[in-house]
Amino acid sequence: MKRLTGKRALVTGATSGIGRAIALRFAEEGANLAITGRRRERLDETAERARAAGAEVVAIAAEHTRGEDNERAVNEALQGLGGLDVLVNAAGVIGNDSILDSPKPDEWRRIMDANLEAVYDLTRRAAPSLVHGRGPSIVNLSSIAGLRPYPTILSYCVSKAALDMLTQCLALELAPRGVRVNAICPGVVVSELHTATGAVADYAAFLERAKSTHPLGRPGQPEEIAALATFLVSDEAGWITGGLHTIDGGRTLTSFR
Questions:
Q1: Active-site residue flag, 156
Q2: Quick one: pLDDT at residue 206?
Q3: What are the residue boundaries of the Ketoreductase domain, all occurrences included (predicted)?
């Protein structure tokens, strides 16, 4: 039997990378989906592939740093799916900044808005419906950069550390209502996140270096993150909440290098 049969999931950032992989895996596992993204063409591609896997899909173009888009996304998801059981906050951004060499107040605000404020705002709008869901849960896409500091990505590290605390506070608050809340903290994953924002000048070299910084000798794949997300929202994970789940090829076991 498919693991998510009958689940109704809202997945953000579904146009590429980890968000797309999660949406497609959920579809394969029997979930029906509301998916969001900023690029309509890419969003429709994900929707088409998810429908081919048997899912009912509501595709919603949205910019989650805008409150009106979050309100519309939740309303369209509820109308299209008849309720919500799962929320996956996969949308996010990265950028380079440091306090001395390249202080960028606008970059700080951009990253905080996308990685923290948007997640809070969408979650607060979805939570009243989730508490009435079937085995409801929330998964936030964080990063090992929220668990330990890395140079040149100051705002990103702080945004993910704050997201981790938001995850745990929500887990405690929503537990009496039966809603589980977890975060996934990946290491380097092959995706468009770094290239789309210009955060890495030489992406091939960046991935090559990941082979030496991750003890398992390679970067991760979006589908591996999707597999963990699938488990966390499934009934098999019914006693797991408040976790910051690293999936990083052993990266956080090593000293910084």
A1: yes
A2: 77
A3: 7-187
